[in-house]
Structure to design on (292 residues):
């Protein structure tokens, strides 16, 4: 049944020549429209003279697809796209190189010695932390209406966390596992928020004027830029380990996270200035998240 629904469910009513639901109409207006549809012949015929003075509503123009350059002009698209580039740069370094890092760490530290299988098992805690971080980032940003501020705070906190992970992660297993959970939450939280809620918010930006064909373009720019960082991160790590050590790789990741936070600084300032208004709307239950 799930496969059938996936293949044959119509997403939009316009695809089968049906009118979309008029959610913006009041119940009384909906009843009047329903009465007109039921009794179209009872409506009085218009006078002949009035036909010439009746204003005709212009036909709705078909929505035009948004160009890449026009999408980049939307405030926040380029900044969030580059922020996702650096966030996925760091995240995919952990994804591909963390087992090898743990194996090298166990060789150089006295209290910890584990096999390749154990190193791979421990790496899953980074993803578990990412799940928790993504949920926390979504809840916090929804409550405050501050997507950019939430991402920036988590990225800034991830910078010293990486240093602590490198400095104290090899002392014992408890420190290592706890720091992996924390690092995964702070690194993957903004990554998850940008690829989901932020892309949806930017696709509904007021400059698009409800153009539904622009959402895919905006999301593709953000996700595509992030995928470029995901491809470069593991490659740069491999080249760095040929000529240096893990300290250099950690400092590269710290620099990437710091630059990602700086990219959202302008958005953060605007969101901080709008915090009193959004807090008042949240208390009245009328909060609508709109990126500045």
């Amino acid at each position: 049944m799930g496969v059938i629904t996936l293949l044959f469910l119509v997403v939009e009513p316009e695809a089968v020549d049906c009118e979309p639901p008029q959610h913006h109409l009041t119940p009384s207006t909906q009843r009047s429209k329903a009465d007109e549809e039921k009794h179209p012949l009872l409506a009085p015929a218009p006078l002949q003279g009035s036909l010439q003075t009746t204003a005709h509503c212009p036909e709705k123009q078909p929505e035009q697809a948004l160009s890449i350059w026009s999408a980049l002009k939307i405030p926040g698209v380029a900044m969030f796209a580059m922020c996702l580039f650096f966030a996925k740069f760091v995240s995919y370094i952990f994804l591909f190189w963390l087992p090898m890092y743990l194996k090298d760490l166990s060789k150089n530290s006295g209290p910890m010695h584990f096999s390749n299988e154990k190193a791979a098992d421990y790496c899953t805690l980074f993803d578990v932390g990412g799940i928790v971080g993504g949920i926390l980032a979504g809840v916090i940003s929804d409550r405050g209406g501050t997507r950019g501020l939430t991402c920036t705070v988590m990225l800034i906190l991830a910078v010293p966390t990486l240093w602590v992970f490198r400095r104290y992660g090899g002392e014992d297993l408890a420190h290592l596992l706890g720091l992996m959970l924390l690092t995964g939450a702070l690194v993957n939280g903004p990554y998850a928020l940008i690829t989901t809620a932020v892309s949806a918010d930017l696709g509904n930006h007021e400059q698009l004027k409800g153009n539904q064909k622009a959402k895919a373009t905006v999301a593709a720019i953000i996700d595509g830029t992030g995928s470029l960082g995901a491809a470069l991160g593991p490659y740069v790590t491999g080249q760095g380990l040929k000529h240096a050590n893990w300290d250099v790789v950690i400092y590269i990741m710290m620099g990437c996270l710091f630059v990602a936070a700086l990219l959202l600084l302008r958005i953060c300032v605007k969101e901080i200035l709008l915090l009193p208004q959004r807090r008042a709307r949240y208390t009245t239950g009328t909060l609508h998240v709109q990126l500045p």
Summary: The mean pLDDT is 79. DSSP finds twelve helices and no strands in the chain. The longest helix spans residues 77-108.
